[in-house]
Amino acid sequence: MQLAIETYARQQPDVVTGLFEWYRDCAKMLWLGSDLLDGFVNYCQHAHPELIDSPLRESIIKSQEAAFSGNQFYLLIRPRVAEQIYLRYSYDDHRLTRCEASEFLSFKEKLITGREHSTNLEIDLAPFERDVPKMNQTRSIGSGVEFLNRRFSSRLSNALRYGDDLLLPFLQVHAYGDQTFLISPAIKNSTELRAALADALEYIKAQDSDLLWGDVESSLRLLGFEPGWGRTIKDIRTTMELLADLLEAPDYSNLERFLDRIPMIFNIAILSPHGYFGQKNVLGLPDTGGQVVYILDQVRALEREIKKRLYEQGLAISPRILIITRLIPEAGDTTCDQPIEPVEGTDHSLIIRVPFRRLDGSIVTEWISRFEVWPYLEQFSRDSEQAIVEQLGRRPDLVIGNYSDGNLAAYLIAQKFGVTQCTIAHALEKTKYLYSALYWQDMEEQYHFSCQFTADLIAMNSSDFIITSTYQEIAGSDDVVGQYESYGSFTMPGLQRIIHGIDVFDPKFNIVSPGADDSIYFPYHAGKRRSEQDVREVHNLLYGEQSSNCRGFLQDNNRPLIFSMARLDKIKNLTGLVHWYGCHETLRKTANLVIVGGVIDPTHSHDGEEQEQIRHMHELFDQYQLDTQVRWLGRRLDKSLCGELYRCIADQQGIFVQPAFFEAFGLTVVEAMASGVPTFATRYGGPLEIIEDKVSGFHIDPNRGDEAAARMADFFERCETDKKYWQYISANGIKRIEARYTWRRYAQRLLTLTCIYGFWRFSNDLERQETNRYLQMLYHLQFKHRAALIEPIR
User: Domain count of the chain?
Assistant: First the structure.
């Protein structure tokens, strides 16, 4: 692909030379894409106004970053999603040429370290992926399982043609305890399997349709079939016919349907070490937010779906799901000091808490930041392995990691047990902080990114499949680099240079969006489902007298409410929303603002970033005199109360605002829309996909707060003139969530993925043994060394 800037360099070299001379005169060492565009616009205005709308401008718009020093200017251009082109401009010979990622990264290292020759460790996983099938269309990113199904059905067809047995060995490994499933050892090959299937289907065809497995078990066992085909005659027949069709003419859709019906998943271990993981009094505590809600809802949905599947498969087995998290002896008014806690709304799912231990075996008693957990994770993982076996009596069928620490623990545990590993990042920190890899040493004391980014690389490359909530999480958009995409190549000067970290075209990536708990978050107009007690309590929260856990008293309670709820940290940008509101006179005259986040007294927080935001929030209240227009609730709310809070906002025709600088998914966006509250949310991250702008909600740019505030004010103004407009947005938001974002659909998809990747792993030897050896070296020689440098908690 020839870039416009390359064409100009060849056809109009003076223009390109003038542009790079302009950049050099700015004397700037590192450039962001926005800097490059501003520089281009200034150059055009002063020298070449005809270029302002030229194709050259497109190349500059697609530029992600640049680096300049001496006689060289390096440029990274991203012409389309998941494609990077590196360019080098030489001021000596005025030539623009392409270069490799390693050269660009090495050049940046020299700028940071000041050393001419760098001896960084180079990490390159590309050689291990030469035989791994990859997608090549950007529209296919995040649809890995569909790609694998097509590939495997083709391979299965070829295997059957040449007499290879691929399905039979896989079907014969399934068992639970002493109970064998599906096919007995008496069937030796595919020829015998086809014959047995034909006899079984002929036999079933003659049976009454209301019979169950137990009624035909003895006859089917004589033919070589074990339990697991289905509970009813209809179920048994459907599963056997799918297998017969696959053996005759493999088809990728039938392959997925068949694997979906196989009893493969009975027990799951879910890892989430950091924060306060509990069911009450935890939301809003440091490092404790949407991930906890996500996992609890996930577990309830998964247990329901596994129970349903096992019942339909005719098996009397109770699924077990374990959430493995950290035990915190100094747990305050939470239950995080309890080793075992049943998950509410489930029959057999548990929260298992395992303490962090120092090298001498003593227990860390207090909460520690998610950025400080790295020295404790290896022992935590060992102890977790033991706890899992004690609870289940066997290894789990699937290990799911959450966030960087949980994903590293899941890697260690899955390697130990030899089971399928699933990675869920929720949010990768690398894209949250500007130049977080390049200037990692400046941030190391607070964030320890040397550990975190290395752990991320290990987990995402070892995982059998990766779940993301949105496409953007993987590959971003036309303008923004995806979270996973950012791990493709980067450098941490003095530590490591990643030439090839991850490929977003890898079929391990799958988009499976979560939902809101529909027993909690339902539309405001479902009056019979609402609790009068919750309504009264929410009214008191909004309009009651001030107390130690709130600031502000809303003087005019007839106004609609602008509502936002999140952790009180920089990324979530709650103070930014308060600033926008304070500056916009029209908005202040139209609506009141309600904020739920953090605590009111900074001395009651143990998190430095949160303390800073608390103090800033108080400064904004004082600066704009907001105490009669803004209500700040610094307290944790139960989920049922959160659901009613959204509905009470809707009762007054208010709105929900998610002003984060970046939001990986946006669970509160889904909750608000499901409750019927028109939602304004950041355009950076998941909400861009959840909301259809001006149809089911509105996108806002958190970097342009004045425009965001004006958009809210315009909405309220239109609602005054068009009484149906609020209802239009509200109803479309509800429809959007019901169609795309439910936990039932999530659970079905996750279990389907587990079945298919389990089959692919077994049949295609996709355990990637060479990669795993490389990752083990990276873990033991790089990660553990960096983790050992973190000063332990006394």
Answer: 4
